[in-house]
Design goal:
single chain; 171 residues; seven-stranded antiparallel β-sheet
Length: 171
């Protein structure tokens, strides 16, 4: 698969200043990567990534293709609630659209008071090059979680692959 992958290894969530610098690096770091190496990059190395191939910049108009779809789950701004990873998996299993990976983000690991914060990832067998198809897929995935949290688009303690724990590291 091909993604924009930051080479910087992290064990804490990037600051806002780090994120600005990282966005520039991500644009220059488009790589072919195996599924196993991708899992290692996000779970062991805490590397940030952009699932789409961007040409000319990191904003939406520069998108050209992608075969990875992600949802970042965070607590609802008003209710401060959202569903757990286990509840998300049960919901997705009910509709037979199981993700390839689900894992807690840096924010989830920093404090349990912040609520459940995690990322859900699906891999497709082919690249999507039509923005209309991309938007349709992304909107369909989001619809499963309307009213169950907010969505936004880092070192993970545990990475789940097809609902099976594949990597657990001590903090």
């Amino acid at each position: 698969m091909r993604i924009n992958l930051d080479y910087q290894i992290r064990n804490v969530k990037p600051t806002k200043d780090d994120t600005k610098i990282m966005s520039t690096r991500l644009f220059d770091e488009y790589v072919d990567i195996s599924f196993n190496d991708f899992c290692k990059a996000i779970s062991e190395n805490g590397q940030s990534f952009c699932p789409g191939h961007m040409v000319g910049g990191m904003e939406k108009p520069y998108w050209t293709e992608q075969n990875i779809f992600c949802l970042d789950m965070e607590p609802d701004k008003d209710t401060k609630q959202n569903i757990t990873m286990e509840e998300a998996l049960a919901l997705l299993e009910e509709y037979n659209i199981m993700p390839n990976i689900i894992y807690p983000t840096f924010s989830h690991l920093e404090s349990s008071e912040k609520g459940h914060r995690y990322r859900i990832i699906w891999f497709l067998n082919e690249n999507i090059t039509d923005a209309r198809v991309f938007n349709f897929i992304q909107r369909c995935l989001v619809r499963f979680f309307i009213g169950k949290g907010d969505f936004y688009g880092y070192r993970r303690k545990t990475l789940y692959l097809l609902n099976e724990r594949i990597n657990e590291r001590a903090s």
